[in-house]
Amino acid sequence: MISYIRGELAAVEKEKIIIDVQGIGYGIFMPESSIGLLPQTGSTVKIYTYLNVREDAMQLFGFLTRDDLELFRLLIGVSGIGPKGGLNILSRLTADELRFAVMSGDAKAISAAPGIGKKTAEKVIIELKDKLDIEDMLNRTADIVPDAGDNVSGEIESEAVQALVALGYGSAESLRAVKSVSHECGTVEEVLKAALKYLF
Asked: Core-most of 12, 26, 47, 145, by most CB within 10 Å?
C-alpha cells in the first residue's frame, strides 16, 4: 500500500495532479477543493493516498491531510459509493462540512455532489452517523481558524451552527459561516449576528 507520496508538483489538471518522484510521474486524483489549495507547480508536496485496484486499472486518490483520507475511506465503505463518488462529495463539501451534514441529517447538501442522489445521500447519513463525532470536529477545527482566540469554544460554535440550521440554513453553509466569523466573537449571540451578516 502507498500511504503517501512526497515529491515535486509537476502538473495540475482538473481532477488530477502529477507528482514527480525521482523521475517517475504519479497521477493522483484529488478533490477539486484540495487542488485549489496546492502550492505553485514546482513546489514540493506531500499527498496522503489511497490506492484503488480494479481489474482494468490501478488508481491513486490523494488528500492533503490524513483526516481527509480517513473520511474518504469511510465514504467508500458506504454501499453504492465508489472512489469517484467519494471524490465528488469531498469536492463539493469540505471534510468538516460533510461531517456536519451527516450529523444534522442534511441529505440535500450531500446530494448536491455530482452523481449522488437523494437515496445515496441518505444512506451516507445512516451509515456514517455513528462513526463521526461532531463535538470532536468542532473542537479540533477551532485550532485551524486563523487568529482564533481561546475565548471561542467548540460549544459556542456548535450552538451557533445549530441555531442557524433551526433558522432554515443548510448545515454545510451554517458551519462555513460560523467558522469564518467565530474568531471575531466571544459569545453565541455575537457569532450568530456575524454569521448572519456573512450569509447575507
From this structure: 47
Q: Give the pLDDT confidence score for residue 151 in this predicted structure.
A: 40
Exposure string for 8-33, b = 16+ CB within 10 A, e = fewer: ebeeeeeebbbbeeeeeebebbbbeb
Place of cell 455575537: 190
CB-based contact 156:187 (threshold 8 Å)? yes
Amino acid at 42: G
Q: How far apart are CA 198 and CA 178, in angstroms?
A: 9
Number of H helices and number of E strands within the chain?
Answer: 10, 5
**What 8-state DSSP symbol labels residue 11?**
E
What residues form DSSP beta bridges with 17?
Answer: 12, 28
Along the chain (200 residues), what's the average pLDDT of each consecutive run of 10 residues?
A: 92 93 95 89 94 90 92 91 93 84 86 90 89 60 42 69 81 79 79 84
Burial 135-160, CB ≥16 within 10 A → b, else e: eebbeebbeebeebeeebebebbbbb
Separation of alpha carbons 106 and 43, rounded Å: 38
- State the pLDDT at residue 158: 78
pLDDT of residue 136: 56
How far apart, in whole angstroms, are the C-alpha atoms of residue 85 and residue 100?
Answer: 19
